[in-house]
Amino acid sequence: MLGNTNLHSLDARIKVPSYDRTALEPHIVHLGLGHFHRSHFCYYLHQLLEQGVTNWGIEEIDLVPSHTAEVAEKQDYLYTLCSKDPEGNREMTVIGCILGYTKGWEDKRKAIDLMKRPQTQLITLTITEKGYCYDNQTQSLDWQHPHLQHDLLDPRDPQSAVGYLALALSERCLQTKEKLTIASCDNIPSNGQVLKRCILQYCDRVFPSLVPWIEQHVAFPLSMVDRITPNTKAEDIQFVEREYGLRDDWLVVSEHFLQWVIEPEGLEGLPPFEKAGALVTKDVEAFETMKIRLLNGSHSALAYPALLLGYTFVDEALSDPLLHSFIRDCYMREVGETLLPIPGYNFEVYKDRLIERFSNPYCSDTLLRLAQDGSKKFANALVPALKIALERGLPHKAMVCALAFWANFLHQKESLVDDQASEALIDAVSLLDVDVKPFFDIIGLAGKAHESLKPLFQSYLTLIETEGVKHVLIHSQR
């Protein structure tokens, strides 16, 4: 098993840390220790450590129950990142920047102490869209969310990520004037602004005197993150053990491609992430919008018709000419017309690269994972593009078709639905024959948008139910 004792006797094809892990200082706290964080942010930090330009390490915190602690501790918080390109080439890298792990849901005091201490200068988050308890339509915290309802009654015993952060900040302000940067690394439009809005709205109710201190001492930079990172499968772990003689139960598998675009606000005094390949720019939102609408939106648009056709993996779905054409020639074309140009960026090249990445058989992602939390993903990725298309009179049939596939999936595959709004969605789908408004309301398509889209949406629904998914895919491409 991977650990400190055998780190320097591994297969020569596996890169191991050249830095002294015992000399690392825990200046970073991360909320939401998952596969993506370990393939993305940790890799950037690892590269800086290899260059010798920082000695910062990470204290990890999970706020929801997980079995991570057991395997992470057994492996001394070391894990192997196996990145694969479309040709099947592998790069094996042991990452050593994680220094500790806290079960925040059990030891809330320790989690708060880690975040509030002056030594912590950067807090990062990968808690997924639903972790923010945020309502896109009202641009406000969802005060009816059970976690926030609990936190309002007992702020000293938080359940929400916002509640944890606010409590830590309230205690931090009493003991230090050190600046702090809190960076969202989640796929949310304007993620830094959303996070700041959530914290300030919460504090305005619970810790009102803290608001001016946050405005002065805490930065919330926007960022765009990208690296396809499927959940690690048992066969991945078995392959590494068989091929490299290494048992790593905390293995992470990702594609070779990675990207991080972050704005300069709050980066003063932090490790120089640009030296590891991050792009620091004030124009993050353009990159973020491009990525969310084209990559994340296409993932969702592909997942539901592909699952309805019986596919399991993204790469095998894209080998179907009908699905390939629907995503590349129809959906991406429509969404691409809603984007503002980025100087020096060719959207057609970017789309082709996305298809190449999605089709990578050596980094195969499951469609079911992409189908999770469709209400949040479509609200962030598809709905803004669809609204722009309606306003400008641009083509939008493929986007509406994607929503119809989703609705049919919710109806046909109810047992597979994994969504925070699943109950409301299933109820709304049951009413589609008589009223589409409740369904559209869930993702923020109300008013004029609802009325203008209703005939096209219902026609696709009828076609899917009467003629089948393949017929609709053919029909949508005419």
What are the salient characteristics of this protein?
single chain, 478 residues, alpha/beta, Rossmann fold, N-(1-d-carboxylethyl)-l-norvaline Dehydrogenase, domain 2, 2 domains, six-stranded parallel beta sheet, four-stranded mixed beta sheet, 47% helix, 13% strand, globular
Percentage of residues in helical conformation: 40-55%
Strand content: 5-15%
Strand order of the largest sheet: 6-3-2-7-10-11
Q: Helix count?
A: 21
Shape estimate: globular
> Taking Cα atoms only, what radius of gyration do you get, to the nearest Å?
23 Å
CATH architecture of the largest domain: 3-Layer(aba) Sandwich
Identify the CATH class of the largest domain: Alpha Beta
Q: Would you identify the regions where 5 or more consecutive residues have pLDDT less than 50?
A: none
Overall strand count: 15
CATH homologous superfamily of the largest domain, by name? NAD(P)-binding Rossmann-like Domain
Number of domains: 2
Can you characterise this structure?
The protein is an alpha/beta fold and 478 residues long. It has 2 domains: 4-281, Rossmann fold (3-Layer(aba) Sandwich), CATH 3.40.50; 285-476, N-(1-d-carboxylethyl)-l-norvaline Dehydrogenase, domain 2 (Orthogonal Bundle), CATH 1.10.1040. It is built from 21 helices and 15 strands. The protein has helices spanning 35-39, 41-51, 68-74, 108-116, 146-153, 161-172, 191-206, 211-217, 234-244, 284-308, 314-318, 321-336, 347-358, 367-370, 374-381, 383-392, 397-412, 422-430, 437-442, 447-467, 469-476, and strands at 14-15, 25-31, 56-62, 79-84, 90-95, 98-103, 122-125, 134-135, 140-141, 180-184, 218-219, 223-226, 252-255, 259-262, 279-280. It has a 6-stranded parallel β-sheet. A 4-stranded mixed β-sheet has the order 1-5-4-13. Strands 12-14-15 form a 3-stranded mixed β-sheet, with helices on one face. The model has no long low-confidence stretch (mean pLDDT 96).
